[in-house]
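go over this chain:
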Amino acid sequence: MGSVTTYGHIAEALGARRSARIVGWAMNSAHTLMDVPAHRVINRNGELTGKMHFATPTLMRELLEAEGIEFIGDAVNLTKHLWIPHVEDIDYPI
């Protein structure tokens, strides 16, 4: 079963709690990189606010559904699929 996280949870794990928008800009730049699962980062309400940066407006949702992510209307079922990262969970080069 797949999982998602939010821009804010990534920012908090990196020690920049109020920097969700900066994380969003980073995901915008990284959505075409194969090793960055940008499609799994959503807003705090479970909405796919980054979908306009993918090849088609429906691709982000299609990728998530292919990974087993369930939706309630237009939002991800956060009760079932939310992952809250911790700094030790984030793998980034030094």
In short: The mean pLDDT is 90.
